[in-house]
Amino acid sequence: MRTLFDKVWDAHVVSQVENGPQVVYIDKHLIHEVTSPQAFAELEARNIPIFRPEQIVATADHNVPTINQDQPVRDPLSKQQLEQLAINCEKNNITFYGLGHPYQGIVHIISPELGITQPGMSMVCGDSHTSTHGAFGAIAFGIGTSQVAQVFASQCLLMNKPKSMRIKVNGKLNANVQPKDVILYIISKIGTNAGTGYFCEYAGDVFENMSMEGRMTVCNMSIEMGARGGMIAPDETTFQYLKDKPFAPKGEEWDKKVAYWKTLPSDTDAVFDEEIEFDAADIYPMITFGTNPGMGISVKETIPSKDSLNENEKESFEKALKYMGFKDNQSIVNYPIDYVFIGSCTNARIEDLREVANYVKGKQRNENVVAWIVPGSKQVERQAIEEGLDKVFEASGFKLREPGCSACLAMNEDKIPEGKYCVSTSNRNFEGRQGPNSRTLLASPLMAAAAAIHGKIVDVNKN
Length: 463
Ligand SMILES: CC(C)[C@H](C(=O)O)[C@@H](O)C(=O)O
Ligand code: SF4
Description:
Layout: H1 4-10, E1 13-16, E2 22-25, E3 28-32, H2 37-45, E4 56-59, H3 76-91, E5 95-97, H4 107-113, E6 122-125, E7 139-142, H5 145-154, E8 156-159, E9 163-170, H6 179-190, E10 198-203, H7 205-208, H8 212-220, E11 229-231, H9 236-242, H10 251-261, E12 274-279, E13 286-288, E14 296-298, H11 311-324, E15 339-342, H12 350-360, E16 370-373, H13 378-386, H14 389-395, E17 399-400, E18 421-424, E19 439-442, H15 445-454
Parallel strand pairs: 3-4, 3-6, 4-5, 6-7, 9-10, 9-12, 10-11, 15-16, 15-18, 16-17, 18-19
Antiparallel strand pairs: 1-2, 2-8, 13-14
Helix pairs in contact: 2-5, 6-8, 12-14, 12-15
The structure holds 3-isopropylmalic acid (IPM) and iron/sulfur cluster.
Residues 61-62, 106, 108, 127, 129, 344-345, 405, 408-409, 426-427 line the site of iron/sulfur cluster.
Function: Catalyzes the isomerization between 2-isopropylmalate and 3-isopropylmalate, via the formation of 2-isopropylmaleate.
Cofactor: [4Fe-4S] cluster
Pathway: Amino-acid biosynthesis; L-leucine biosynthesis; L-leucine from 3-methyl-2-oxobutanoate: step 2/4
């Protein structure tokens, strides 16, 4: 009677501190330019070698420019961080997909698409959205810089086992409800702290019928409800996706692995510390109106009334609405917007770009909207061009840029100006996230594409 999480966790426990935490072996350690430099410096200062460099993969993503990537990086801080990562990887024999490499891209996009992420693995990265990889039935979570150093030195982590939660969504989704809507809906119902201390398994028809891309979108945002990570049981969809990926097992090894992966799903009598259930029929295309990902509504609804909230909630609610320039009880449909960002580790995979192309084909971008389409990786970019999506985008007034985190957190030049509204397919709508005093409305790629065409928030089921 074990859960998926139990099975993968147990297989990685190296030792147990008496009445204390466990030492957990880490199969894959992903790194990027922002959270690795201090950890490398720490090891160097203490003269400790990197224990297993072959278990580490590095990429350049957070502060890379998304145009002219073949030219030198202009921003001095970005340039320095990117160069430092290249030096650190070279010195320590770590595989590095830097700018210009055909595998470069957002860390949580490249590892799955290369087949580095696999079911049953334990994976970490100094990045909160590492939860994405749980879509394959891996235990994957973000760690802080001191833990990055710990994993560098030992390939292990000292950890207390998290509690387990299962969220089931059964039934059939309504038209144009995308995986992003499902996770925005869940977070809007349970709040941004509901998952604190838990690892969450997503189960039920909706996730079983979802593509790997969709499952990654869902698991990606687990952290936004406070969970340490999210997971979905590996199945035929997972195996089909992984088969023949560059780093996926091959031949006999593949068969052996698949046989093992099939043993991982939670036993039918497994017990979770917490269980929550939703009905797929209740979910409709979503949009956020506030400054955390839990402040979301279906596009048909109005912003909640402040009278419906308790005293504690009221203050942050009012602050969020003031920041966003909204009023309670207001509908957001037809609200004009200025920017659209289609990108990030939540929604910049090929499937997302196909959805957008499919919607915008034959239509024109509203002239008041600046729209950025930023592919999650070089491979996504290449695939999009191969399929002619770049031409579709161009004909509709959109430009396909080059891969990176971009306006998801605006560490590069892609910033939303002060006071402007941006419909974004990313995962965080915090104050200033996309640039100082910018205003973010989180939505699915389809809702974002529709906003770019109409110049305002629209219900995709009516437009
Ligand atoms: C820069 C990095 C530490 C950060 C994270 O951990 O999530 C970033 O990726 C984000 O999305 O805010
Ligand atoms: S795309 Fe955004 S959320 Fe994802 S890793 Fe980059 S900054 Fe973090």
